Structures are given as structure tokens and as C-alpha cells.
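Risk register update: the risk of archive-format incompatibility is retired. Evidence:
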Amino acid sequence: MDRQYVDTVRLLLAVAPVIFESPYFALKGGTALNLFVQDMPRLSVDIDVVFTDHVMEREQVLKTIGEELLTAKARLEYMGYSATLHKTQKGDEAKLLVDNQASQVKVEVNFVFRGTLLPVMHRALVSSACDLFTTAMELPALAIPELYGSKLVAALDRQHPRDWFDVAAMMDRFGLEAEMVDCFVAYLAGHNRPVHEVLFSNDLLLEEIYNTDFVGMTATEIPLQHLIETRRHIRQELPKMLTDTHRRFLLSFVRAEPDWTLMPFDHLKDLPAIRWKLLNLEKLRTANKSRFELQANELIDRFNRSLT
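Archived output:
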């Protein structure tokens, strides 16, 4: 593991307990998976945060996120770190950058996909991380099926080598469990891109970002071809893991007539990302009916092709 990444994780582990003093925040993404689920097969240098309350009104959410990050910022500055708060103009993301001159950690709160499908769990830092960094902690994190369900969507969407590595680790330890696929379908529905564009996305070249943003992060050297093979395997197997119920739900959703009874999450219809996606689909149906209908037709076509 590269020393620079090790130093960054050391800073991350000093920052994380301060961030998660907030009762509204839970950990997701690569840091949750590699430092709190798997026994540190790779390092992770960002803190991805879920705002767990899906009922709170939008303006209050923005206000609360800002207040919680400002509180963390003040605490971190008191501890001797430099901390800078950034918000996007649309207000859909808030980032806190924390550095100690040698390293920098990004704390990012996603405003749109807030709330959780499953109850938040408190997870302990894995033993190998405790030993390497001589620290211990427990943090609130998404449940394992939800961590991996959302990770699968991220892998198909942005196709970063780190994501494919995390998916490979998932397959080695857990396989593709049914509850993970349920969570995947929910996150896929709430993604800002059309369902078929994410589920059946085109392969991106991985070599450059593998060399610049992946090499040096893992406990053992991972060849690029292993990640490419993982991607190929997931593209082949994941569509087959979607049950008829999953497919019917996704088709009903892209037609803006979701059958919520097909999914196991009673509050799915109330999640802001789902509501926002549905609103945009309804707007598209009014503004451009042919383009709206194309999404369902494309999804049906790709579903049929994936089964042949």
C-alpha cells in the first residue's frame, strides 16, 4: 500500500468520529466496505455520507446538513486541522475538505439520495485497520445489502476500478445475495440516468484511471485484467439475477406508473430520489411522449437480449 494513501486513511480515521457525531449521518461507499465490512483489502480516502432522514422537508434538510457540517468543521479546526466547506449552487451536494498539510480527506453528503432502505447498523473498524492505525471506533453505516446494492449501481455508472474491486470482493465473500439485488433495483430506479443506460452501460476504458487512482491502494497487487473480468461477469450475471418481479417493477417505474407492491421496501415511494425521478419522468411524458416511451421500449429490448 502506498504511503500517501496510508497517511490519508490515518487522517480519515481521525476525522470520521467527528462527522458521525451527527445523529443524521451514516457511512456508505468504499470506506464503509473496506474499513468496516471487509478486512481492509484496499484503502479508501473519502467519507461518503448518507443523510438518513427521508421525511424531513427539503429546505430543512439543506439547513440541517449545513449546520451539522459547520459543527464538525469547528470541532476539527479546534483539533488543529484545516477544514473548508463547499456547497454546489443547486444545493444537491455539500463537501467538507479536511487537511493536515500532508493529506486531505473529502467528506461528501449527498442531498438527493437521502434516507435508507434498511435500518442503519453500527459497525466496528476491522481488526487489520485497528492494528495498522492503532485506533478503534464504531460508526453508523448502511446495512451490508444496501452498501453493496448501491455499490453495484455506482460500478455500472462510473466504472471506476475501485468500484469493480469492491464488487469483486463482494462476490468472493458474499456472492450476489437476493437482498443485495433488491437494494440494487431500488437504487437503480432512483438514479438520475435512465435505467437502461446504467444497467446496460457501455464499457469505459479503465487503464489510465487504474494507474493514476487505483494502483497502491490494495493490500495485494490486483491486475487490471481482474477488474475487467469482474465487470464482464457482473454484466453477464446481474441481469439474470433480476427476477420477473424486479423487471416488472422497473418497467412500471420507467412508465411512471410504479407498482410499489412489487418491492420489499414499504417506504420506497417516499424516498426523495425516487420521488424526484418519478416527477421528472412525468414531466418528460408531458413534454416529449416519444422520448418518454423510448425508455421503456429500450429497457424491454435489453431485458429480452440479456436472457438470450
